[in-house]
Amino acid sequence: MNLKSLEPRLQTVLEWVPNGVHADIGADHAYLLGNLLGQNRILRGIAVEKNQEPFELACKNLEKFGSRAEARLGDGLGPLAAGEVDSISICGMGAGLMVKILQAHPERVPDQVITQPNDSAEPMRRWAWERGFHVKQETLTLGFWHYPVLHFERKTGEDPSYAGLPLDVAFRFGPHLLKRKEPLLLDHVLQQQKRLTQLEGTGNPKVQRDLDCVRSALEILQK
């Protein structure tokens, strides 16, 4: 396993994981964890996987790292103890499921959380806002579609990332992405505008709310 074996979305996650003890939740074959360990980016790694076959492959892939790595069979944060890890990553699933995983064991969520949802990151940002986590960094990566990658950090006080932005718009599209006028986000928002404009006359209130949100985002991105 080497860095080249990772997709761009996972390469970004790898670069954002802080040094320390890290757990990858839903680790599949533990390629991300293997790269983290192989490049000495973390002190120790735990791969958590709930399905038997990928769990067994994860065990095999992590053997060469000896006591620095282990795989655990289980769901979400269930196999971890409170305070056991410094950071976690959750990649390649829906943001709604990620939130459920984090909410199931709030006492086991460390101060650093890195996620790569396969859909809108809005539920993750709302979870972070409500649970005392700030958006430390976020980006969009190219792949089958534009994958969001987010790094949350537990901090006191209101997240300054959202200052000066309409909250609903920032939850939907990302405060850092909006403020730096991310080109990939602009492409995405323009596509959303085109799709929603075609539905504008249907009388669906959700369509109108979404379109208003998209137009607000465009005002920020095109200033």
From TrEMBL:
Keywords: Methyltransferase, Transferase. GO terms for biological process: methylation. The keyword Methyltransferase applies. SUPFAM superfamilies: S-adenosyl-L-methionine-dependent methyltransferases. Coiled coil: none annotated. One of its GO terms (molecular function) is tRNA (adenine(22)-N1)-methyltransferase activity. Gene3D superfamilies: Vaccinia Virus protein VP39. This is tRNA (Adenine-N(1))-methyltransferase. It comes from Deinococcus cellulosilyticus (strain DSM 18568 / NBRC 106333 / KACC 11606 / 5516J-15).
